[in-house]
Amino acid sequence: MDKELSQHRASIDAIDGEMLKLVNQRAEHAKAIGVLKDGAVYRPEREAQVLRRIKEENPGPLADETVARLFREIMSACLALEQPLSVSFLGPQGTFTQAAAIKHFGHAALTRPCASIDEVFREVEAGLADYGVVPVENSTGGAVGTTLDLLLQTPLQVCGEVDLRVHQFLLRKAGATGKAEKIYSHAQSLAQCHEWLNQNLSGVERVAVVSNAEAARLAAEDGAAVAIAGEAAAEHYGLEKLAENIEDKPDNTTRFLVIGQHDAALSGRDKTSLAMSARNRPGAVYELLTPLARHEVSMTKLESRPSHSGLWEYVFYVDVEGHRQDVKVAQALAELADKAAFLKILGSYPVAVL
Questions:
Q1: 121 annotated active-site
Q2: Which of 95, 111, 254, 272 does the annotation list as catalytic?
């Protein structure tokens, strides 16, 4: 057994040495590309293509997702050789939004916590951050209205998306005793855990705060309170886990958008997000959807929000399959521009890979 162990360990050492050489060779090529492109080496579509190829070519035994995450970190480190990407997110430290930012950009990116979603947009618009990550919808709690409203107002474009499985924890200050008097959490998380709270903490006041990490911070200061937040927040603020995975639905997932000064080029599997409003006449909404059906463009999302420009006027947020440069999508968008009272292309971007 000792001889076999030694042989395996020697093989692993040799493989590690070869991997080290290859990773550094890859980094040299990334640096060369950065010189040729004057530092503009981050391209969402290129990274999506690489990760898709890695998953398709993966022979195992490592899972496709595991291999893709490894390569995500390698690409992140290579990008950071010249200058790490700065990414603003809804803070403070330990939020699900930060977890989404790290999932998309890797640990080599510099994440910048912001006090609100509005601030994330402002930082990217002002050039204080290269990109921003904002929540847009949850499979249980629905759309994030603030993000949708700001997408109408900003010159920024959507250049990526992140899907994050969300597991909620009930947290409390370590050593605290007695009955909890308050539950702090983000409104979305309170909605995601509504039934669990009704069954287990029905008489406790629920207080909505700006983020789950803020809820964790408040609970760390108040022994009479508990918080609903993620594992990262629990670790960051040193909180005790009273209950795990308390979300009502086990497949609870939040979708985040990546915003920047540009959208993405064609990657081969893309989405396009747009916002539009109908003219005030019979059949106007039907007219808006007809071009998509005529050109065989599949709609994956339809969400309505008050337009804030007039009573009972609405903006429709739509996601479709395909890039705005795809022939069918381009034709449908051209027709929509003629039929809609208002149309804004929010961006085309690769479908989430990780």
A1: no
A2: 254
pLDDT digits (tens, 9 = 90+) for 110-156: 999 999 999 999 999 999 999 999 999 988 778 999 999 999 999 99
pLDDT at position 32:
87
Q: Which CATH number fits domain 86-166+253-259: 3.40.50.300, 2.60.40.10, 3.40.190.10, 3.40.50.170?
A: 3.40.190.10
Please give the pLDDT value at position 312. Answer: 59
254 as an active site residue: the answer is yes
What pLDDT, on the 0 to 100 scale, is given for residue 91?
84
| Residue ranges in the chain modelled with pLDDT below 70 | 38-41, 310-312
| CB distance 250 to 324 below 8 Å | no
| 229 close to 177: Cβ distance less than 8 angstroms | no
Q: What is the pLDDT of residue 61?
A: 96
The answer to whether domain 263-350 has CATH 3.30.70.260 is: yes
Q: What are phi and psi of 127, to 5 degrees?
A: 80, 10
For residue 151, which of 129, 188, 120 has the smallest C-alpha distance? 120
Q: State residue 281's pLDDT score.
A: 80
Note the pLDDT of residue 40. Answer: 58
Q: Find the helix packing angle between 145-153 and 117-125, rounded to 10°.
A: 30
CATH match for 16-79 among 1.20.59.10, 3.40.50.11060, 3.40.50.1010, 3.40.50.800: 1.20.59.10
CA torsion 186-187-193-194 (nearest 10°) is 150
Give the whole-angstrom CA distance, residue 280 versus residue 346: 23
Q: Write down the H helix ranges in the chain.
A: 2-36, 44-57, 64-79, 96-105, 117-125, 145-153, 187-192, 194-200, 212-221, 231-237, 284-294, 327-339
Where in the chain are all domains bearing CATH 3.30.70.260? 263-350
Distance, in Å, from the CA atom of 341 to the CA atom of 234, rounded to the nearest integer, reads 47
Contacts of 334 (CB under 8 A, 6+ apart): none
* Mean pLDDT (the chain, rounded): 93
Q: Which of 147, 256, 272, 316 is catalytic?
A: 256
